Amino acid sequence: MTLPLNGIIPIVPTIFHENGDLDHEGNRRVMDLSVDQGVDGVCILANFSEQFLLTDEERDQVMRLSIEQIAGRVATVVTTSHFSTRIAAQRAKAAAEAGADALMMMPPYHGALLKADEQGMIEHFETVAEACGIPIILQDAPLSGVTMTVDFMLRLNKRVPLVNCFKIEVPGTANKLRALVEAGGAAIKGPFDGEEAITLMADLDGGATGTMTSAMIPDLIKPILHAHAAGDRKTAAELYARVLPIINYENRQCGLRAAKALMLEGGVIKSDAVRHPLTPLHPKTREGLLELARELNPLSIRWGK
User: Fold this and answer.
1) Peptide bond into 277 cis (omega under 30)
2) Are 107 and 148 in contact (CB under 8 A)?
């Protein structure tokens, strides 16, 4: 399996029991759901997977369980970000040895103030690439507080060719994607957007070949990509308009809890618990989300029934 350079690679949630323990069976079922949703790959241990609430041992369990359950049916991307270059490289090596097809990483940061300079970032990714030998998706997201220019991304790619895929989810994503693709040419193997696909049409117009959304409705988003890639922008826009209300609701009201809420409704998982200090969805918020979902009838709300 190689990393698909177009299509949809959703961020898969980590499933917990009501008491907060890992639900291994639930996580396995979500992997099977993902394959049935027609995804081109899955991304695990990312921010929408609550990676920041997992112990190192739990991260390893989720990674190995997920790769085992996917069993090569689609590509598996493992997020291995860490401020420490040493730890990021160790995570990357473990992921590659476990069978990951690619990594996703944010630039090294810790809190609001601890960040590497550009030379430090290049050295960080060089070390990780040497440790793993598999493609790396650079995640450009506001959470890191790190500003990466297009010029820097191109220099990083030149120094570390394995960093050839880019998930852009910052204000003005479409323009940044357009500039990256135009300047980088063939070196830019996988320009993806993210942020729950809330700016998907603009980003596809800007040169994105794929998207890394949540795992909520990838089966309804994938046809948008196919239509746009085929040059049928009108159909793509119509399909996008149909799902935009629930994407907006997820992005602005629910965050990472939305996918779990739909999966609970659909009998995929037994609990949509999140770990404290995150809090459950308010009942009214959940009701509004499910109202939108029932109109669309994605696989996630009927897979386990």
Assistant:
1) yes
2) yes
Complete DSSP assignment for 152-196: HHHHHHHH-TTEEEEEE-STTHHHHHHHHHHHHGGG--EEEE-GG
| Beta pairing, strands 41-44 & 75-79 | parallel
pTM reported for the whole predicted model: 0.97
Residue 99, amino acid: G
CA distance 289 to 280: 13
Reference 289, options 301, 276, 273, 304; nearest CA is 301
Predicted confidence (pLDDT) per residue in 10-64, tens digit: 999 999 999 999 999 999 999 999 999 999 999 999 999 999 999 999 999 999 9
What's 305's DSSP letter? -
Q: Token pair 């090569």 is at which residue?
A: 72
The per-residue pLDDT for 305 is: 94
Nearest to 200 by CA among 231, 239, 161: 239
158 tagged catalytic = no
Catalytic residue among 93, 115, 167, 189: 167
